[in-house]
Write a structure and sequence with these properties.
By secondary structure, the protein is mainly beta. The protein contains 2 helices and 53 strands. Strands 22, 23, 24, 25 and 26 form a 5-stranded antiparallel sheet that branches. Strands 31-39-38-34-36 form a 5-stranded mixed sheet, with no helix packed on it. It has a 4-stranded antiparallel sheet with strand order 1-29-28-27, with no helix packed on it.
Length: 720
């Protein structure tokens, strides 16, 4: 069944809990609580009866024998990774602690090679789901999500209502230091947490609650039972300092919050509200991205709406190096509103870059021909580009270059700083059901760690079987150099040189090998003047290296050096110069200056001086010959055999007569101009005389060649 985002589920609710309800566009505003309880019931019943360039480095799966649903991934200061989500597994598989209730927070700490260092379970006697995790300045961790539990298990405070924000602070080894519950008497869902510059924390999510419990501001549509953005500022020990509610008159669901350089806050989520209350811009379609900027005390400074004529859902927001913001999610809109590119399939990733005041700088659409949902995160990269994570149903099409193995697979896109796609990666599992939330992080320069929630067994990129229903799965790829080269002249003549163009990327150093050439090695990026003296076929090898490793390209017989052309010589007979016949082309020079049109194998020297000749063979290889101090002759007769051309000079017709060659065979008569270009040719039978009509020739001196069998006779005549 084709999956879309549901309008009766929270955008971060455990994906496996959503089931067939995911059929219509997400409109936000309804809690995961009832769905989560339904999930627990279904799984309890089942238990009772009881899937570019990047080179994979490793992959690991983590789970218990029940359902484990991944929602958060964070790289740590020790070059490791911490994963977090919701688990209904007991102490089995990779899980070392039993669950407290229906579902608990579960975090797993990994080293830089993906090996588990420890795991921790936190929960109450009801249900919890972790949606966000951050490392703190003391190298501990702050965990945030939702809880329906009262006092019990790890939870020391009662629930205010249906679901509350629940915060857990741990040390660097995952040991609980304190926990806090925040909520009103209705549904409150925490989706984002970040440590602030004063070592406190800012919490962001959405709420249906009115003034009650920890909530001091009323819902903007109290009679409509819809959601607003709700943010809470707490100190370093979890004590509440203030809270703020922002919303329009319809559903507004906050997904991400960050502290900005001015110590204010940027809030991002999805809104279906028109102008009203805190919303100053109308919605373009059903749902839009909605951004709210506040000062350090949560006082609103401005808000912006971005969307197209259909609907959009925001799932990621990050600060950029220019103090602006980049946000991403999904879109079904064509070109309309703020959307400058049409969709490729049913849903596409949609990314919008704005400046520090919320003005749009650019937007980009990425997708294949099916459904592609950016329900993941945005990660800034070391080259000032971006990584976008989500899931895709699409085959190879549009921006998608790899086919899926399962129905829905994780899909990562890497772009430059302007959003131009550089590569994409499909995370292959053989799961027969959908893989869900996909997350990505550049863990070191050119190395990327990606995580997916999957039920896949061994297959595709996955090397370990599933523990249970769904597991956390993490995979690391490194962007090793991609090597390619070219040269304008791979086919050479002996004694010539060529230059090499390096088409590789992501490399920092190069080592070239040119066996049979001079020089035979080079460390230049683009080597020049690589010269080959002898004929033959030669290999070329390039080793490209970056901080992640090296790759080697060996091109066998890449360079061909042709055999040397036959030696050339110039002979003189009278004032005519002759080269060895058999070359493909000829070019004569006088005193080193080219003689235009002198391209035959002989040339009649009109003046004294130095002559040289460049001959080219069928491979385009040249050979040169030269003669010096030629004395131009005035005699017409070149051959030692006399034959008569009369009258000479001639006006219209002339007669050729000589019995010595007419008795042998039929002859061919060719007339050349003084540049050696044939201007007239005809055949003559075995007769004593041949009459030639030369009336079409212009005035001047001409060279007459008579071929009789294997004999050639030459003379000159003047046309008047």
């Amino acid at each position: 069944m084709k999956k879309k985002l549901s309008d009766n589920l929270s955008p971060r609710a455990p994906q496996a809990l959503k089931g067939a309800a995911r059929k219509t566009p997400f409109r936000g505003g309804v809690s995961v609580a009832n769905v989560f309880i339904l999930f627990l019931f279904i799984f309890s019943a089942l238990h009772s009866f009881s899937q570019n360039p990047l080179v994979k480095q490793w992959d690991k799966r983590f789970g218990g024998t029940f359902g484990d649903f991944l929602f958060a991934m964070e790289k740590t200061t020790d070059s490791g990774i911490i994963l977090g989500g919701a688990s209904s597994s007991n102490a089995n598989g990779d899980k070392t602690q039993p669950q407290w209730g229906g579902g608990d927070y579960w975090i797993v700490k990994l080293d830089s090679s993906g090996n588990k260092q420890w795991d921790k379970d936190f929960g109450g006697t009801g249900s919890e789901a972790l949606f966000c995790i951050r490392q703190t300045s003391d190298n501990g961790f702050i965990l945030g999500g939702i809880s329906s539990s009262g006092i019990g298990g790890n939870k020391t405070q009662p629930s205010w209502g249906n679901w509350d924000y629940w915060i857990v602070k741990t040390d660097s080894l995952g040991n609980l230091q304190w926990e806090k519950d925040f909520g009103g008497t209705n549904v409150d869902e925490l989706h984002s947490i970040e440590q602030t510059s004063d070592h406190g924390y800012i919490l962001g999510g959405f709420s249906k609650s009115g003034i009650s419990g920890d909530k001091t501001e009323d819902n903007k549509n109290p009679g409509g039972n819809t959601t607003d953005y709700w943010i809470i500022k707490i100190d370093s020990l979890g004590n509440k300092e203030w809270d703020k509610d922002f919303g329009g008159l319809n559903a507004d669901d906050l997904i991400q919050i960050h502290q900005t350089k001015d110590k204010g806050y940027i809030l991002g989520g999805t809104s279906s509200s028109l102008i009203g209350a805190d919303k100053t811009q109308p919605s373009w379609g059903y749902n839009d991205y909605w951004i709210v900027k506040t000062d350090s005390l949560g006082i609103k400074q401005w808000d912006k709406d971005f969307g197209g004529a259909d609907y959009e859902g925001l799932f990621a927001l990050e600060l950029t190096l220019d103090r602006g913001f980049i946000m991403g999610g999904f879109s079904r809109s064509g070109i309309s509103g703020d959307k400058s590119q049409d969709t490729i399939g049913g849903y596409d990733y949609w990314v919008v870059k704005i400046d520090s005041l919320g003005n749009k700088q650019w937007d980009k659409d990425y997708g294949g021909t099916d459904y592609d949902e950016m329900i993941g995160n945005i990660n800034l990269t070391s080259d000032s580009g971006y990584l976008f994570a989500g899931t895709s149903y699409s085959p190879i099409s549009g921006d998608k270059t790899e086919a899926n193995l399962g129905p829905e697979q994780g899909w990562i896109i890497k772009t430059d700083s302007l959003g131009n796609k550089q590569w994409d990666k499909t995370l292959h599992t053989n799961s027969s059901v959908d893989d869900e939330i996909t997350l990505v992080s550049e863990t070191s320069i050119g190395c990327f760690t990606m995580a997916v929630e999957t039920a896949g067994t061994i297959g595709g990129d996955k090397s370990q079987p599933s523990w249970g229903v769904d597991d956390y799965w993490i995979i690391k790829f490194c962007d090793l150099p991609t090597i390619n080269i070219s040269t304008a002249t791979p086919n050479l003549c002996p004694g010539t040189c060529t230059d090499f163009v390096n088409l590789s990327f992501n490399a920092t150093s190069y080592q070239w090998f040119f066996p049979g050439a001079t020089p035979s090695t080079s460390t230049a990026t683009n080597p020049t003047n690589i010269c080959y003296q002898n004929s033959g076929s030669y290999n070329v090898q390039l080793i490209a290296t970056n901080t992640n490793g090296s790759d080697t390209l060996l091109l066998s017989n890449y360079i061909t050096v042709y055999p040397a052309p036959a030696p050339q010589a110039i002979a003189q007979s009278g004032d005519t110069l002759f080269a060895n016949a058999g070359a493909a082309t000829y070019q004569w020079f006088f005193n080193t200056t080219i003689i235009n049109g002198a391209t035959n194998y002989f040339y009649v020297a009109p003046q004294s001086g130095d002559y040289n000749l460049v001959c080219t063979d069928a491979n385009g290889c040249e050979v040169e010959a030269a003669v010096f101090n030629i004395i131009a002759s005035t005699q017409f007769e070149v051959s030692g055999l006399r034959f008569e051309v009369y009258p000479n000079p001639v006006v219209d017709k002339c007669t050729i007569h000589n019995a010595q060659f007419t008795i042998r065979t039929a002859v061919t008569i060719t007339i050349y101009n003084m540049l050696g270009t044939a201007v007239q040719q005809e055949a003559s039978g075995k007769r004593p005389e041949t009459v030639l009509d030369v009336s079409a020739l212009s005035k001047g001196m001409y060279y007459l060649e008579v071929t009789a069998g294997d004999k050639i006779f030459r003379s000159k005549f003047v046309k008047q």
